[in-house]
C-alpha cells in the first residue's frame, strides 16, 4: 500500500497493524465508528529515533511538516477540580494553553500535563500520544486547520510508527471539539 502523504517503506491500513499499536489505540481502531472508514486510517512504520517532529521531517521529508500534527495532554484546573484534555494542533504551531484551552475547559488555570500523567492516563508512550484511543470522557480539542487537512500525520501511541488519517476523522472523534485558533504561531 502507498501512504496518502509522504514516502514510507511500510504503510498499511491501521486495522492490519493492531499488533504494532498500544492497547488503547488498537482498541479504538478495532471498534472504529468514525466519520471515515477504519481502512482510511493508515499506519506507517517509522524509526523511533526520528519520532520528534523536527528530526522526523528532516529524515522523512520537509513537505510533511505542513501535514503533521502534535497531540499534547493538558490539565485545566478550577477550584480543586482538574480536567485532562488532548489538544491537536499543526506541528508548525503551539497550543494556546492560556487562551483557547483555558476558555474551552472553563478552567481558571491550564497547563501541559506532566509526562507521568500523560503516559499514565493515556496508556501511550511519551512522544507518541495520539487523539485516537484516549479515555472516553476526555475533551479532544482539534484545531480547525488540522480538521481541514485531507490527511494528517499524527502519533500512533508509540514512538515507533505514525498514523495518517483524514482531518475530518479527527474532528469526528468522541469528545472532539473543533476550535479556530487552538494552534498559534510558534
From TrEMBL:
Gene3D superfamilies: YbaK/aminoacyl-tRNA synthetase-associated domain (3.90.960.10). CDD domains: PA2301. Residues 64-170 form the YbaK/aminoacyl-tRNA synthetase-associated domain. It comes from the Bacteria. This is YbaK/EbsC family protein.
Amino acid at each position: 500500500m502507498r501512504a496518502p502523504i509522504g514516502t514510507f517503506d511500510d504503510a498499511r491500513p491501521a486495522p492490519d497493524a493492531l499488533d504494532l499499536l498500544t492497547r488503547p489505540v488498537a482498541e479504538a481502531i478495532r471498534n472504529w465508528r468514525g466519520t471515515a472508514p477504519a481502512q482510511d486510517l493508515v499506519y506507517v512504520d517509522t524509526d523511533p529515533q526520528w519520532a520528534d517532529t523536527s528530526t522526523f521531517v528532516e529524515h522523512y521529508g520537509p513537505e510533511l511538516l505542513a501535514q503533521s500534527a502534535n497531540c499534547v495532554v493538558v490539565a485545566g484546573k478550577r477550584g480543586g477540580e482538574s480536567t485532562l484534555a488532548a489538544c491537536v494542533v499543526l506541528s508548525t504551531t503551539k497550543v494556546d494553553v492560556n487562551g483557547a484551552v483555558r476558555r474551552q475547559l472553563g478552567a481558571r488555570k491550564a497547563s501541559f500535563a506532566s509526562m507521568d500523567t500523560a503516559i499514565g492516563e493515556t496508556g501511550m508512550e511519551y512522544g507518541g500520544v495520539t487523539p485516537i484511543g484516549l479515555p472516553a470522557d476526555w475533551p479532544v480539542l482539534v484545531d480547525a486547520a488540522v480538521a481541514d487537512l485531507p490527511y494528517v500525520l499524527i502519533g500512533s501511541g508509540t514512538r515507533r510508527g505514525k498514523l495518517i488519517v483524514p482531518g475530518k476523522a479527527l474532528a469526528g472523534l468522541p469528545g472532539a471539539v473543533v476550535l479556530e485558533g487552538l494552534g498559534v504561531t510558534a
